[in-house]
Amino acid sequence: MDFCEAIAAKIAEYDVDAADGGVPGFDAWDRAARDYLEDVRKRLLAGEGAASVYARLKDELPRLEELVEAEEACYTFDWYDDHHYIKIYSGQVQACKAALALYEACEG
Hints:
- Helix 1 runs antiparallel to helix 2 (28-45) and helix 2 packs across helix 4 (84-106).
- The protein is built from four helices and no strands.
- The radius of gyration is 15 Å and the shape is globular.
- By secondary structure, it is an all-alpha fold.
- The protein starts with a helix and ends with a helix.
- Helices cover 75% and strands 0% of the residues.
- The longest helix is centred in the middle third of the chain and has 24 residues, at 50-73.
- It has helices spanning 3-18, 28-45, 50-73, 84-106.
């Protein structure tokens, strides 16, 4: 399985969780992780090399972790949910780490 296929398989796991009868707690965190992985897949399908995507993910992870830390220190108010943004950023961190691990398993 190549990197793009592995990303697609991970996205499919989120799609199963989101479907009726899937995981009842599917929320903004899971949606953000799924959307992040979809963006990674789109870059790969558009012709960006796996190594280039991997390098971008490694560069992006510290920024995402800083966003989570900032939200933990002082939550951004949102009418939808007081913890909405930390869920989004945490989902993105989770997806970024998963994508890095998938690359290392497939290409490394």
